[in-house]
Amino acid sequence: MNIGDIEAFVAVAETGSVNRAAIRLRITQPAATRRIQNFEDAIGAGSLLNRSVKPAVLTSLGLHVLEKSRRVLAALAELEACAQRATDPSGDLKLGVAHGLGEMVLTTPLDTLRRAFPRIKLQVSSNWSKNLIEEVRGGQVDFAVGLLTDEHTVPAGLVRLSLGSEEIVVVGPSRIGATRGGKPWRLRDLTDHGWFVNPRGCGCRAALVRNLEQMQLPINIAAEVFGEDLQLSLLARSGGLSLVPRRQFEQSPHRGDLTILEVSDFILPATVTLVRSASPGRFEVAMDLLVDELKSKLIAN
Question: Taking the domain 3-85, which CATH number applies?
Fold first, then answer.
């Protein structure tokens, strides 16, 4: 029985398709198909995938074999990781970073990582947290740092490591006032104000829209503006509302013209989270260092 065949079966089960499994394994789709067929032949107890439906799903036997296969790969990864911890990991490390977290992740923590592991070549990309989770699942990135809210789910086969909490706040021009006559604002009180929001795909925007829909309130979108820094600049000049991480607001050069509105019926906690495969990999020691650096930076700030 070949380890590569087991990896292909687990990849198909976790990604949901042979094509995504091939991307994760960095092989061609026909090669992934052959590996899965070889694995089924080696098991010799029947089909592991029900191919009569699209996409194919695991049979009851496949579900049983999947659990055992994950244990085999986890044990092998732990063995490899133990050996690699004694040496410098090398190769292309693909890291995904959520929009809005780049400055936090791409400065001191990555500088420390590069100094500690000079044989690692970093490849950093940015995306919405929801998409980053799928990229980790599909193998396009080795792990990702996202800003997760209740809008996000992490599928089986991945784990999430909390790095620190973050508060998403409603921001408007100072003339609006942090409170309404000494009382907190409600979303209903803000319906006349236009919102500067990120394009679709942003978890914070999705949470705002969901809350307004539950209250049967309209959302007045003044503009879709990519990036909270630009949104804050526009708010300072023209007024309106936006959703911004508190940390980002406090570091903004426009904060003197803006204020955080206390909104009693809209509270959006978020967590800076590292998402990775449940199976240890060859970059474990580098990931552990990055996790420590990010936690320290979040605490310091």
Answer: 1.10.10.10
